């Protein structure tokens, strides 16, 4: 809990080093920048430099052998004329929206509930979190097996699932991917909301009770507004997570039927590592970064998160 | 804050419990049934026989080797994280240089960089330095991508160390290094175990880097083994479920013994 409370403070805009000024002029425990250097160089080598390199590679043609060859805007022209690329962007958007609207209400409700002090809560929470520990690969393989048309659950419950081939149609395949995403990520977001809900000051509820507000009223008038910052963080994580969904698509649908679940992140993998067109793959990767950053900025802007300093605003 | 039981929320959370638990039940019960029985009775039926053959099959298909590879990757990643993150967080929390403040923003930005975005250049880099199909080539980028979140978590812990404690050390005329080893590290034990468990989980569950950066069976990790098992023997559902179950056992054990560290790490991950 302390982790949550303290690490939330240096949100965008808040400078972390402006705070410890309280320890006065003491120079003890004031390490030089050199302490940060090894990690910074290491991270730059594998994340920042490649991020710049992906931009350069998007203007080259490279098949994995020999050296990349500069081709100007060729890859970008290819992409813009590529119907699969356009479709993948729409599918990604659909994934993000469906992911956010299914996971957010559920995780807020579960998180607020789990923040309470019921007796059975601890046991239930322990089970809720299990999907969170499993790899996307394991989860996808598990669900693929569970949804097998012949030997899986749909075959046994045919009154509910019809012919049982859920992954055979576009709507079925998207539904499965969204559901598996929910199964996998709701625990994580629940945990975030649970932490935040515990941090809401009790005085607010006591005041509301004196004013005669019921439980539902309290939820909408106090809990939800107080969870606003948390919701923004959670939604940004969902957006980036949805945009970069990969293992589930690869293992559950392989982008199909046809290209009906080929979202942009998966298309990038196909172009780069299955068609060995690393130039086009890099261009798609760059699109992913731009879209992820843009959506996150929009969420931050629209919510006014960048202007807030305290998560307990108005208190 | 809650005095009356909230029945509506209770029912809702019970329903979600079923959604989470039923697949896990089917998974476990399926692994102990023969293929024929599983096929005849369906996944939701109670098992009527008991066999360990599926686990034998899964291990025989190479999972022992995959486990070893995954352990190597996990240990390597945790070692790098524990070596690099504490000094970095110390500098972020305590350094008065502007550069340290800049570095913190740099790592916050890093949180938003998805691995997919840089996978092509990372592939190029690993290829160029000759680490393709080598576990070291998987360890390095996996560790790098664990750094931002671990830095965030550990900086949060280190911020709780009060200035008075540093001032007490100042009386003794301690150097920054001495303060780090005598004060900061001992008081950050909770955060250190959190980032160790957290980065271990990321390494254990990693898929994209091994998929792109390894090829042969000698370097295959568990997650890739599952994917491979699924493509090759997708029809052997109990065997597949046994493989999935095996891949989860170490993580569930860690969950049992280090639940607090893990949950705190995940809460911190969201609470940024």
Automatic annotation (TrEMBL), chain A:
Membrane disposition: Multi-pass membrane protein
Pfam families for the chain: BPD_transp_1 (PF00528)
Keyword Transmembrane: yes
Keywords assigned: Cell membrane, Membrane, Transmembrane, Transmembrane helix, Transport
Cross-referenced SUPFAM superfamilies: MetI-like (SSF161098)
Subcellular localization, as worded in the UniProt entry: Cell membrane
Sequence segments annotated as region (Disordered): 1-24
Cellular compartments per GO CC: plasma membrane
UniProt domain ABC transmembrane type-1: residue ranges: 89-299
Highest taxon in the source lineage: Bacteria
Single Gene Ontology BP annotation: transmembrane transport
Name of the protein: Sugar ABC transporter permease
InterPro entries xref list: ABC_transporter_permease, MetI-like, MetI-like_sf
Protein family membership: Belongs to the binding-protein-dependent transport system permease family.
Transcription regulation is among the record's keywords: no
Transmembrane segments: 32-59, 89-114, 126-146, 166-185, 231-252, 278-300
Lineage of the species this protein comes from: Bacteria, Bacillati, Actinomycetota, Actinomycetes, Micrococcales
Automatic annotation (TrEMBL), chain B:
Keywords: Cell membrane, Membrane, Transmembrane, Transmembrane helix, Transport
Membrane spanning stretches: 7-28, 66-85, 106-126, 138-158, 179-201, 235-258
UniProt-listed InterPro entries: MetI-like (IPR000515), MetI-like_sf (IPR035906)
CC per GO annotation: plasma membrane
UniProt record similarity statement: Belongs to the binding-protein-dependent transport system permease family.
PANTHER family: ABC TRANSPORTER PERMEASE PROTEIN MG189-RELATED, ABC TRANSPORTER PERMEASE PROTEIN MG189-RELATED-RELATED
Protein name (database record): Carbohydrate ABC transporter permease
Source species of the chain: Arthrobacter crusticola
């Amino acid at each position: 809990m302390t982790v949550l409370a303290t690490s939330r403070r240096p949100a965008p805009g808040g400078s972390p080093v402006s705070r410890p000024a309280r320890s006065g002029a003491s120079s003890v425990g004031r390490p030089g920048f050199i302490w940060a250097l090894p990690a910074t160089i290491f991270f730059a080598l594998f994340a920042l430099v490649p991020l710049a390199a992906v931009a350069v590679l998007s203007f080259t043609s490279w098949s994995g052998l020999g050296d990349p060859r500069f081709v100007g805007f060729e890859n970008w022209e290819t992409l813009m004329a590529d119907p699969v690329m356009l479709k993948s962007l729409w599918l990604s958007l659909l994934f993000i929206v469906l992911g956010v609207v299914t996971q957010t209400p559920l995780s807020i409700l579960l998180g607020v509930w789990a923040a309470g002090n019921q007796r059975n809560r601890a046991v239930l929470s322990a089970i809720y979190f299990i999907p969170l520990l499993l790899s996307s690969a394991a989860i996808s393989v598990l669900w693929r097996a569970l949804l097998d048309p012949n030997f899986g659950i749909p075959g046994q419950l045919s009154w509910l699932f019809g012919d049982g081939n859920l992954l055979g149609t576009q709507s079925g395949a998207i539904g499965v991917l969204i559901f598996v995403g929910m199964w996998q990520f709701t625990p994580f977001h629940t945990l975030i909301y649970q932490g935040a809900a515990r941090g809401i000051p009790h005085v607010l509820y006591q005041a509301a009770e004196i004013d005669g507000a019921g439980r539902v009223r309290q939820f909408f008038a106090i809990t939800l507004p107080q969870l606003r910052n948390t919701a923004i963080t959670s939604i940004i994580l969902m957006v980036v997570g949805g945009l970069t969904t990969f293992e589930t698509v690869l293992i559950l649908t392989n982008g199909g039927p046809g290209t009906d679940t080929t979202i942009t992140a998966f298309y990038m993998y196909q172009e780069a590592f299955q068609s060995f067109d690393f130039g086009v793959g890099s261009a798609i990767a760059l699109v992913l970064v731009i879209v992820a950053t843009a959506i996150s900025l929009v969420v931050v802007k629209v919510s006014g998160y960048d202007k807030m300093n305290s998560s307990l605003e108005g208190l | 804050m809650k005095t009356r039981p909230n029945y509506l929320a209770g029912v809702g959370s019970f329903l979600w419990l079923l959604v989470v638990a039923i697949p896990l039940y089917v998974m476990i019960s399926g692994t102990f049934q023969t293929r024929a029985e599983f096929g005849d009775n369906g996944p939701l039926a109670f098992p009527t026989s008991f066999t360990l053959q599926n686990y034998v099959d899964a291990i025989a298909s190479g999972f022992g080797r995959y486990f070893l590879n995954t352990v190597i990757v996990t240990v390597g990643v945790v070692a790098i994280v524990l070596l690099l993150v504490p000094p970095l967080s110390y500098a972020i929390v305590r350094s008065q240089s502007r550069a340290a403040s800049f570095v913190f923003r740099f790592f916050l930005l890093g949180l938003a960089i998805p691995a997919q975005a840089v996978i092509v250049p990372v592939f190029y880099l690993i290829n160029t330095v000759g680490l393709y199909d080598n576990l070291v080539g998987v360890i390095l980028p996996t560790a790098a991508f664990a750094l931002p979140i671990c830095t965030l978590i550990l900086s949060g812990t280190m911020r709780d160390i009060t200035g008075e404690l540093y001032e007490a050390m100042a009386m003794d005329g301690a150097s920054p290094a001495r303060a780090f080893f005598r004060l900061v590290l001992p008081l950050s034990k909770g955060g250190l175990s959190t980032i160790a468990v957290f980065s271990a989980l990321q390494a254990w569950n990693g898929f994209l880097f091994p998929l792109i950066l390894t090829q042969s069976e000698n370097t295959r990790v568990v997650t890739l083994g599952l994917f491979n098992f699924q493509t090759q023997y997708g029809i052997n559902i109990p065997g597949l479920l046994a493989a999935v179950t095996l891949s989860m056992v170490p993580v569930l054990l860690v969950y049992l013994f280090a639940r607090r560290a893990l949950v705190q790490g995940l809460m911190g991950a969201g609470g940024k």
